[in-house]
Amino acid sequence: MKAKYYIVIFSLFFSAGKLFPQKNPDSFRFFGIRSYSGELMFRGLYRDWERGTEQLVEKQQSYYYAGGILLNANTYILHPNFCEIDLGAGYMPESNRDNFILSPDQSEVRTVKKLNMITSFFPRKKITFNASSNYDENFAKRENLTDIKTTNKYIGGSMLYSNKYIPVSMDLYSRKLLQTEIQTGRVLKMDQIHFEVMADQSFTAYDKQRLVYSHKIHSNRNENNFSTANTTDEINFNSNIALGEKKIFTFYTSISDINQQGSSDFSRFQFMENLLIKLPVNFMFSTNYNYYILNQSLARLTQNSMSNTLSHKLYKSLDSRFFFEYTNLSHTVYTEYNSKTGFDFNYNKQVPWGHLQLSYGYFRYQQKYSSDSVNLNIANEEYILSDNKIVLLSRPYIRIQTVVVKDITGTIIYQSGFDFILIERGKYIEIRRIPSGQIQNGGAVYMDYTASQPSSYKYDADNHMFATSFAVFKGKVEFYYRLSLQNYRNLENTDYITLNYFTQNVAGLRLGFNMISGGAEYEDYKSSILPYRMVRYFLNFQKSISNRLTMILNGNMQNYTMLNEPESRVQRYIDVTGKVEYIIVRQTKFNLDVMYRKQQGRGINLDLLTARLEFTSVIYQLYVTAGLEIYKRNYIGDKLNFKGTYIQISRKF
Asked: Are 623 and 589 within 8 A, CB to CB?
């Protein structure tokens, strides 16, 4: 009911503007309207879908109707330079009826509500105050697989003091989020309170300093009533100083201190200093030092690391680099020393008939490790999960039941079987995201686990990298080849760890002619951990005809042959996307979008087809959208077939 009152009040604002027209919208008055807009909308939707396994299939038909109004206005009190207000409101009641085959039918009325307000006091003065609030409910799809209902409540304020000495800003906001997956019933509740103060300062045109303090309270609860809550205080200082007009010397300093208490207690202090020096004859030297200390409830980690690089550019063709890096780690249960020394160069040259690129790099990596315990607890190890990339956890002999996968804040704990799966690969573990889960494709996750490790070991690794490519016919044809080698020497007590001896050969061909491009790639990865052979084909087509018809087609296929797994040797990934857009007349067009994905392999079998045909038109400010939707999914025996149609009509003013 509150939303209805908000809409009534908002409508009075519009009426005030029409009842009391303003010749000068920025003149002094108790209440003024500078601009306003709105939209009336109706939407209807029909869905027919079935889901289940071979033993049990659930069928459902859904009828959905919605209509409402969206309003926006830019207003002020007394004068725009005193108080400026941006208002937005929406009210959209929805009626939904579901007809089931196995379950009782049901119907419901869902109301999507939206109300937001941003208020600025003295917006064009040195001291500015802002206050904002937002409330909205919405329904969306995650990767066209899972229906998501989200309720979001936000309220906050800020202050900005602009001056030429030390500009200061302050922000405070509170956010409450409730997210429900309609099909699975998974619930995520999240509460956030965030306070931040930031100050900037510059003495000259060649320096800049920034100091930031933040206080965060973050908590959530999932469908199993598993709750996490953390309170975090963080201070960050950054400084960038350049000496001289040519900036021959550049200093960069970063200091941060974090203290977190709650479900995951830790404190972290980090100091980093970087120096860049421009030397004569196109030489450049950079050095970096990083100090890091992490305290957790059961462990303490101290890290010192340094990197040094000397680079040179010869004409426009040859770039070369020499580097040395080292890291010294001291953990409660182990100590570790790593160093990396090497060089590389990159040569680019226009030659008769084309462009030639050559590169070569070599480095030696040394590691010394000693421990008093055979069980090592790892916390907050970062991984990037991608659908077409094999990701192995970095250590062997991991106790799979101890693996915890979470987001960067540590408050969202992802669930095995819903968001990710773990696959044992000999002594290592592979992790894969599950489509429609909460982990985004290409997203980062942080992992905790326990691994068995030897008491001490030592080894040196030699790594060689060579790459070349040759492009002809103005880049329309390109051949490329890459070779990587890794070998080990000076081994001590390495029987309990798995060293990755590998030889990797990658060769490919790219072709590009006007509207079509494509290619093929072959990879032979001889590894002591996870050897495989991969063949990849890709094709891209794009064509426009008379600025009215546009066609786009992209295809990609990757075949992996896992050489050390005779029972599940093949992993296959096929992705095809297509788009057709046809403009009948101005502002009237058809769009067809199709996507097909197929995955084959242990624990990843997936068939997914999505398609949408949509018609849009604008007739005298009347916006019409109608369409058909299809998606079919079979993920490890869980089948979902969906068909739907929708229409939306809106009038903007």
From this structure: no
pLDDT at 423: 83
Please, what is the Cα angle at 600 between 594 and 602, to 5 degrees?
Answer: 145
The number of residues making up the chain comes to 653
Q: How confident is the model at residue 97 (pLDDT cuts 50, 70, 90)?
A: low
E-assigned strand segments in 315-427:
318-331, 334-351, 354-371, 375-385, 404-406, 420-425
Q: What pLDDT band is residue 209 in, cutting at 50, 70 and 90?
A: very high
Give CA 537 to chain center in angstroms. Answer: 26
SS3 state of residue 192: strand
Beta bridge partners of 158: 130, 171
**Encoded tokens for 576:** 């095809």
475: left (phi over 0), alpha (psi -120 to 50) or beta: left
Task: Check residue 413 and report its DSSP letter.
Answer: B
The helix/strand/coil state of 525 is strand
Cβ count within 10 A of residue 431: 20
- For the chain, how long is the longest CA-to-CA vector? 88
φ and ψ of 14, to 5 deg: -65, -40
**SS3 of 550, please?**
strand
Determine the pLDDT at residue 224.
63
Helix (H, G, I), strand (E, B) or coil at 496: coil
Report the relative pairing of strands 456-472 and 354-371 from DSSP bridges: antiparallel
In order of 279, 387, 449, 528, 593, the CA distances from 145 in angstroms are 56, 15, 30, 38, 16
- In whole angstroms, give the CA distance from residue 593 to residue 581: 9
Is 534 in contact with 526 (CB distance < 8 Å)? no
Q: What is the pLDDT of residue 505?
A: 97
Assign 3-state DSSP to the chain and report helix, strand, coil percentages, each to 5: 5, 75, 25
Using CA atoms, how far apart are residues 15 and 21, in angstroms rounded to an integer?
A: 10
**What CA–CA distance (Å, rounded) separates 199 from 585?**
54
Q: Are 468 and 483 in contact (CB under 8 A)?
A: no
Q: Is the pLDDT of residue 72 over 80?
A: yes
Reported as a single tens digit per residue, the pLDDT across 29-52 is: 777 888 888 888 888 878 777 777
- State how far the Cα of 112 lies from the Cα of 612, in Å rounded to an integer: 24
Lowest mean pLDDT among 51-55, 310-314, 358-362, 613-617: 51-55
* d(C-alpha 158, C-alpha 198), whole Å: 11
Residue with tokens 């060689």: 464
- What is the bridge-based pairing of β-strands 456-472 and 375-385? unpaired
C-alpha triplet 323, 327, 328: angle, nearest 5° = 150
Helix (H) or strand (E) holding 11: helix 2-19
148-150-153 Cα angle (round to 5)? 170
> What's the CA gap between 260 and 266, in Å, rounded?
5
Q: 66: which 2 tokens? A: 């919605």
- CA–CA gap between residue 587 and residue 603 (Å, rounded): 46
What is the rounded average pLDDT for all residues in the chain? 84
Please name which of 451, 431, 527, 540 lies closest in space to residue 488, comparing C-alpha atoms.
527
Q: Are 598 and 606 in contact (CB under 8 A)?
A: yes
Q: Would you state the structure tokens that stand for residue 223, as one six-digit string? A: 């469908």
